[in-house]
Each structure stands twice: as C-alpha cells, then as structure tokens.
Amino acid sequence: MEEKDMSFMGHIGELRGHLIRCIIAIIACGLIVGFNINWIIDHIFFGPVRNDFPTFRVVNSLSRYFTGDNAIELPDDFPVRVQKLYQQFNVMMSVSFLGGMVLAFPYIVWELWRFVSPALHPREKKNSMVLINSVWILFLTGIMVGYFLILPFAINFAVLFKISDIIQPLYDLSDYTALFFQIVLGMGAVFLFPVIVYFLTTIGILTPQFLKTYRRHAIVLIMVIAAVITPADVVSMMIAAVPLLLLFEFSIGLSHRTYRRLEKAKLSDEA
Fold first, then answer.
1. Cβ neighbours for 163, distance < 8 A, ≥ 6 positions apart
2. What are the transmembrane regions (predicted)?
C-alpha cells in the first residue's frame, strides 16, 4: 500500500514539474510578446483593418483580374476609442498572455506527452507522437484560418456596413479585442475536433458509422458553432462553416481508418 501511495505521489510530483515548466514557458513567451507589444499591436493585432493586409491583397488581385476593380476597399482610418482608464493596459496584458499561450502551445503539448509517454507501449508511443504533433499543428492551423480568412471579412463587413451617413464610426478597443480573440482562438479550438474524434474512436465510444448517420445533425451543429465564433453577418458565418465542414469530413475518414485498424488488431489478437 505504501508503494502505491508513493507511486501515486511520485506521479503527482512529476505532473507538478511538467505544469511548472509549462507555466514558465507561457510567462517567457508572454514576456517576449510584451516587450514587442507596440509592433505586434500595430502590425498583427490591427493588421486586418488595413487595405494592405495579405487577404485583401489576394482578393483584390483576383477581383482586378476578372472585373478590373477592387472588391474590398476599407477606409484609410480605423478610429479606436478608449473609455476606461486601464483599458489599454488590460488589452496589453490580454494580448501578452494569450499570445504567450499560443507561442508556448507546442511546448505545452510536448510536456504533456512527456508525462504520459512512459506509461505507453512502444506501438502506442509511436502512434501518440503523430497525435501529439497533430494537436499543435491543427491548433495553429485553426488560428491561421481565423486570422487570415475569417477575421478580415468580419471586419470588412462591420466597417463598410452603414445605415446612415450621419453616423460616424468610432470603435471600442475592448470590443475589437474580444472579436479578435473570439474568432482566432475559437477557430484554433474547433480545429482540434479530429483529435477528439480519433481519441473517442480509439477508446470505442465513437464509430465512423455514427458520424455518417448523423451527418445532417452535424452540419446544423457546425452552422451553430460558426455563428457563435463569428459575428452576426452571414458572410463570415459561411466562410467559417466551409473549413469546419471539410474538417468534419476529414474526421469521418480518420475515424474510419482508426476503426478499421483497431478491428484488424482485435482479429489478430484473437487469432
């Protein structure tokens, strides 16, 4: 009994060490973001509000090729107001902390894998390496999709939409910050869906037939998720729904491959 208690406490101590290193990595990456906060705010944070943003340049280049005119033309100014005394400081801290988490995310995943891997068999360890790399790759891919594909069109709709010329735009800093992280981090989290499907299929809870049977229900759920991640405009919601639908179809194929591999391993063990 004492050996089990010591073994359990040893695992707790080891987990604490991994968590402490993860926290240190987040703080270190957050400091990197914080020391470069001026450049990050000007060029990355407010990048999607400018006409020279890569997404707008590509869209306008294609539009000029087919129609001769630009499809998107944002105003030169993006007036942002600050209503609270510590609003800029709070935004700086939010950008530094969340930016630090994004930068440190591959290392965090690696630390968690180091904690779990000693308990795995050699074949499971080999498969888990693919899974662990897929986690941070899918997360960062979702962030890139949110930043370069969805956020620019959401901002474009919000800036160009007018109900009266009398109304002069003046945007709130906290509102823009919430929209930025809602779309970018939301897409990063949703892109982890294939990893969840793989895990549930591996432990026998989910089957590819279940995903195929409830595909129509999943499409409705995807539209709801796209509506939650994006603002109220239909264009942004549809743009967000397309990669999520492709991700769902990819997850069906992944579940089918995983399920077939498990069935073959089960038959081999029985033989």
1. none
2. 20-41, 89-110, 130-159, 179-206, 218-248
**Beta bridge partner(s), residue 140:** none
Closest CA to 175 of 154, 189, 190: 154
CA 46 – CA 79 distance, rounded (Å): 11
Residue matched to tokens 């009266």: 164
Distance (Å) of CA 35 to CA 46, 47, 61, 87, 238: 17, 19, 35, 18, 37
Are the C-beta atoms of residues 154 and 234 closer than 8 Å to each other? no
Question: What is the tens place of the pLDDT at every residue in 39-98?
Answer: 999 999 999 999 999 999 999 999 988 888 888 888 888 899 998 889 999 999 999 999
DSSP helix/strand/coil, 186: helix
For residues 119 and 198, give the distance between their C-alpha atoms in angstroms, rounded to a whole number. Answer: 19
* Token duo for residue 246: 């492709």
CA 239 to chain centre: 15
Q: Which long-range contacts (CB under 8 A, 24 or more apart) does 128-132 make?
A: 131/195, 131/198, 131/199
3-state secondary structure of 41: helix
Closest CA to 151 of 56, 61, 264, 254: 56
